[in-house]
Amino acid sequence: MQYLSYFEKLAPDRIRIRKRHSYYWNDITFFCNYFSHETLSVLEIGCGTGELLNEIKAGRKTGIDFSPAMIKEAKKQFPGLDLRVMAAEDLRLEQKYDLVILSNLIGYVTDIQKVLEQLHNVCHERTKIIVTFHNHLWEPLLKLAEWLGMRTKSPLLNWLTKDDMRNLLMLSGFDCYRQTGRMIFPVYIPLLSAFLNKFIGKLPLFRLMSITGYAFARPTSRLKHEETHTAYSVSVVIPARNESGNIEDGLLRIPQFGKWQEVIFVEGNSTDDTWEKIQQLKSKYENKYKIKAVKQEGKGKADAVRKGFSIAEADILMILDADLTVPPEDLEKFYNAIATSKGDFINGSRLVYPMEKQAMRFLNMLGNKFFSRAFSWLLEQSFKDTLCGTKVIFRTDYQRLITNRKFFGDFDPFGDYDLIFGAYKLNLKIVEIPIRYRERTYGSTNISRFRHGMILLYMCLFAARKIKFM
Fold this sequence. Notes:
The radius of gyration is 25 Å and the shape is elongated. The chain starts with a helix and ends with a helix. The strands form 2 sheets. It has a 7-stranded mixed sheet with strand order 3-2-1-4-5-7-6, with helices on both faces. It is built from 19 helices and 14 strands. Helix 16 packs parallel to helix 19 and helix 17 crosses helix 18. The longest helix is centred in the last third of the chain and has 19 residues. Strand 2, helix 5 and strand 3 form a beta-alpha-beta unit. Helices cover 39% and strands 19% of the residues. It folds into 2 domains: 218 residues, Rossmann fold (3-Layer(aba) Sandwich), CATH 3.40.50.150; 240 residues, Spore Coat Polysaccharide Biosynthesis Protein SpsA, Chain A. The chain is of the alpha/beta class.
């Protein structure tokens, strides 16, 4: 292909260009690394001289490039990496990878869709893909820089919009679940570059001028709906403090779905007979349900959920609040969403359907609205309800989330933000399911609106520094 021979001749120049623009390339490396993890297997397509791949956190790393000169240079610099000469249009690798990175490659290929379709050869059903590409708004400026001799001349590039990228991924069999941009000032000037890129570049209008676009994608599910009904086992964790009157009703209303189910009650130092009620149910229904019961040593819902998840054995982990304000019958919707790969982390949304009168107090409603707006901006996707108690995640992802927990701090009393921020950091697709929110029929809320609200506000500000302004 024409572009292959062109860049083969320019291999030494590509090496020099990469070193000369290290500030720009280092930012791409940093952002891709942000979404990687020590346990992942990573493939970089178009790895060049291997700098990005060498820096990526991963358990197994493979890099390919069509240029023998680039691979030769990469092997000289990083002899420990698995590097191969291979064209992106003809991927011949036996392994499947957890994360595939295409860094500024698609601007040069003659058939983007063909390259993207080849990715299915190296993807399993839960592989994540990160594609970086040049913002088309920068084309006139970079061409001017070439004309002035300030930039090395390059062939005609494919200049893509976000919509172009999303459409190409869709046509190739991938779900593009998030897009963003970074760096409005790609030249390093101490203090000024950091200020412009970390802060000014995150503001709404300035974000449009980011030089690099990022698309995050995953393979579209090929499983049929009926095939998923028994595809995964399920652990339903029910934190219960002073919820004696809801325990049996909650258990009996959970529908049957999944390969098998277990229900885990975590009793949270109740002052009523919640613990005794759980023990009675365990004996009464031992032939019908797989029930586990454990007492919470710490305090708060977050601690209870972690306790329950720590003894869960199933593929999928679910949270069901014992107050039953989220109907247990809706859990099957959550299962279907995650089992059919609609998302990797499923969050309930109480703010779509009309609520029963006393289901949510006015100040709680305002708080939820505020935090949903804040999260939509922070995580760059629409969020309706961040504090719905029902959340669902694969156990393997939760185990990785635990190791990342220190990144955001450990002071969320409910565990909602801990899970949402953790899911974002793991590069999971987050999906919301609208549910009807009911009034309590027994007991009273354990939430302190003002004290807990201040903690959640602090956590948002803390996360902004870790997610947005970095």
